[in-house]
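Every protein is a chain of amino acids, and every chain bends into a shape of its own. Below is the pair of lines this work produces for a single protein:
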Amino acid sequence: MDIRKKQRAVVEALEDVKGRDIMVFNVARQTAYFERVVIASGDSSRQVNALAARVQEKMKELGTRIAGVEGRRGGEWVLVDLGDIVVHLMHPAVRSHYNLEELWGGREVVFKPEAKPAGKRKARHKPRAKAKSRGKAARRRGRK
């Protein structure tokens, strides 16, 4: 599966369960073990576990292998290893303490909008030229 489709699916899974502050980093030049790091926050241990479960569920739907999951018991920081993508899900306090953005930071991945299906396009019209504004007296004289 293409890495961009996979990372988009991960982000969509996190957004489904209201993950906050989702960031995706391209770390292909920093490590040979994986290409992307996804970091997201959840407000409670239950939400962090739900985020991890939703990512796993979405990857299984796509037929992607899940290499491992760590930290589900505690729920403050859960790591989901998808092979070429590693997903860190954590409480905001834990996230600010460990500051993984600084460690993996550098180049955040920017998503391009998905291609829309081809359909009828609206005809583009040239914008009309604006009429020159005239003063109050000139407008009065122009009336008949």
User: Anything to note?
Assistant: The beta strands are 20-26, 36-41, 68-70, 77-81, 85-90. The CA atoms of residues 4 and 111 lie 9 Å apart. DSSP finds five helices and five strands in the chain. The helical segments are 3-16, 45-62, 92-98, 100-104, 136-142.
